[in-house]
Structure formats: structure tokens, C-alpha cells
Amino acid sequence: xxxxxxxxxxxxxxxxxxxxxxxxxxxxxxxxxxxxxxxxxxxxxxxxxxxxxxxxxx
Length: 58
Description:
The protein has two helices and no strands. It is mostly helical. Residues 8-42 form a coiled coil. Keywords: Coiled coil.
């Protein structure tokens, strides 16, 4: 193999690695987003409703 082919192979390898890491990060982000939605839902159930915040005299 000549030097150019070695460089091309190295760049292709780096590209494949970057693509793999992108897939991994997307998977982690999906999991984190799901967890965030679950926590937001849980928080919404713990927060008082608007009617609960109003005084009885109004």
C-alpha cells in the first residue's frame, strides 16, 4: 500500500469510529430524555394545581 492509501484507510477508520460514537451518544441522549420526561411527569404530580394555590375567599 502506498502512503495515500494508508492515509485514506486511517481516515475511513476514524469516520467509522465517529459514526459509531454518534450512534452511542444518540442512544444515551434518548435514554436521558426519557428519564427527564419521567421526572417532569413525577414533578407535575407533586406540584399543587392552580386551584389549590388560590385562596378560599376569591
